[in-house]
Amino acid sequence: MLYLFIALLGYLLAKAPGFDHVGQLAPAIIIAVLYRQILGYPEIIRAGIGFSSKRLLRFAIILYGLKLNIGTVLHDGLGLLVRDTGVIIFAILLTVWLAKCMKADKNISLLLGVGTGVCGAAAIAAIAPIVKSKDEDTAIGVGIIALVGTIFAITYTILQPILPFSAVDYGIWSGISLHEIAHVALAAAPAGDDALAMGLLEKLGRVFLLVPLYFIFMYIMKRKSQSQDHSDNKIEFPWFLIGFIIMSIFGSYVLGSLIPVSTGFMDGVSQLTTWYLTAAMVGLGLNVSLRDLRNKALKPLIAMGITSVCLSILYSRKFYESRSQSIYHSSNS
């Protein structure tokens, strides 16, 4: 009941003015962290915390697969996936390199690089078990990605009317550079339906690439473990990711075509996914100790912020140059 109560408080706080663009994940984590520091938690719920921070989290990722329309992503072609692959590689490598230069926490920085490049909290939650991340580090990463992503999304909506982009280009830019699907929707919607559709398509391409990225990390960590002769350090096969793929296929080719469903039903499933993810975040938050938190989180936050700014500027510049060349050719013809 404690998880549901804190999740409900996070949901209600997300409805308050000033928090209505943040979503319920970040407020729920913050409340859970404060609860742990002020009141602690009874030993009897320790097993429940482990259940919510692991089992519920994986179930939420499985349901998250319904948001990925594989058919739409594949129909757009190789160019989309190549572009999104470049975004992921750029975000991870730059964040990790900046963290190394600043001597920041390597694990949190890696999680933030993955979250920036792929799909925010869901990507962090998926990769965290592979890199043996502590629950505390995972919670810090999720909180930072939610906060920074929200700030960027709101900034995009403010800048959108004055940017020299078409609605389609603006939508693609949002989908390429923003962190969560919700952030893309928040930023792209004011520019119209075309911008929103293109933004979500671009973002779904990055979500799609979470699957191969997971197995790449599995391979790297397994090789690293073998080289260090840690024979007992086994990596669990990601059955939840198989569930993610199955739900993606089911949502792409069965729901809506073979099995008619209403928009309200899909919205309900999406809301249920968010609630499961929120409950999992509460479990993670209850594991966080504020001791040394500032020293661990500040430098990774700076590294991730620099990466996000670079990502935004890099692709906005590309769209600007592309648009300028198009105008130039049109005027000459």
Low-confidence stretches: 326-331
Question: Helical region count?
Answer: 15
Query: Residue share in helices?
Result: over 70%
The SS-based structural class is mainly alpha
Largest sheet: none
**Secondary-structure element order, as H and E?**
HHHHHHHHHHHHHHH
Strand content: under 5%
Radius of gyration: 20 Å
- Summed over residues and divided by their number, the pLDDT gives a mean of 79
C-alpha end-to-end distance: 68 Å
Describe it for me?
This protein has 333 residues and is an all-alpha fold. It has helices spanning 2-14, 25-39, 46-64, 70-76, 78-102, 106-117, 121-127, 135-159, 167-177, 181-188, 193-208, 210-227, 239-253, 263-286, 293-332. Helix 6 packs parallel to helix 15 and helix 9 packs parallel to helix 11 (193-208). It is globular and about 50 Å long. The protein starts with a helix and ends with a helix.
SSE inventory with pairings:
Layout: H1 2-14, H2 25-39, H3 46-64, H4 70-76, H5 78-102, H6 106-117, H7 121-127, H8 135-159, H9 167-177, H10 181-188, H11 193-208, H12 210-227, H13 239-253, H14 263-286, H15 293-332
